[in-house]
Amino acid sequence: MGRLYYTEIKTETIIRTMHEYALGSEVSVYGDVYSFGIFLLEMVTGKRPTDEMFKDGLNLHEFSKMALSKPLIESIDPILQEEVWEKSTCNANTTSNLSDISNHRVQDCLISILRIGIACSEESPRDRLVINDVLAKLHIIRATLLRASGVKEHVQKSTAITS
User: Fold this and answer.
1) Which pLDDT does position 161 carry in this prediction?
2) pTM, rounded to two decimals
3) Which of 111, 19, 117 is nearest to 61 (CA)?
4) Residues 66-86, buried b or exposed e (16+ Cβ, 10 A)?
5) Cα(76)–Cα(73) distance, rounded to whole angstroms?
6) Which of 17, 52, 103, 140 has the fewest CB atoms in 10 Å of its CB?
7) At what angle do helices 97-120 and 29-45 cross, to 10 degrees?
8) At a CB cut-off of 8 Å and minimum separation 6, what does 54 contact?
């Protein structure tokens, strides 16, 4: 598995760098995709690559892969748990199966985001998703979430001003 190296800056911000950079490889789009994947995994799980739980070969990427085989609620960020499960429980008393369907769609979207994060943070740069594919998948997730929430998606068409 790729190892992360951390450098602390004066502002105490942590910079993540892939193992291939530490070995002298050139900076590339693959590294950007990796960082984006780790960012997605952090958002969904609420964990950071520097959390103390990640040792003995366990890292955020592996944790997230293992999370796919468990109930989602066990692996996601507690704030997301509150948003997804507690809201749906409150709404269940006032609405019919609609809230269950929306809740299921949201959970499916979170799983999809987790899968994208895993695919982006693969050890080998060549095994990672291409950013255009990532964007296409995220647009599908966005549209699904908007439909689940009952919000109509607005498509903006750019118009060129000609003189």
Assistant:
1) 47
2) 0.73
3) 117
4) ebeeeebeebbeeebeeebbe
5) 6
6) 52
7) 140
8) 47, 60, 63
Distance CA 131, CA 145 (A): 21
Instruction: Please provide residue 14's backbone torsions phi and psi, each rounded to the nearest 5 degrees.
Output: -100, 130
Of 154, 136, 156, whose CA–CA distance to 146 is shortest? 154
Q: What is the amino acid identity at position 68?
A: L
Place of tokens 């892939």: 18
101: three-class secondary structure by DSSP: helix
Both ends of the chain: CA-CA distance in Å? 56
DSSP string, 59-75: -HHHHHHHHTTS-GGGT
User: Across-strand partners of 7?
Assistant: 15
> What are the tokens at 38?
């780790």
Return averaged pLDDT per consecutive 10 residues of the chain, 163 residues in all: 42 44 70 92 92 89 93 86 64 50 81 96 92 96 82 52 44
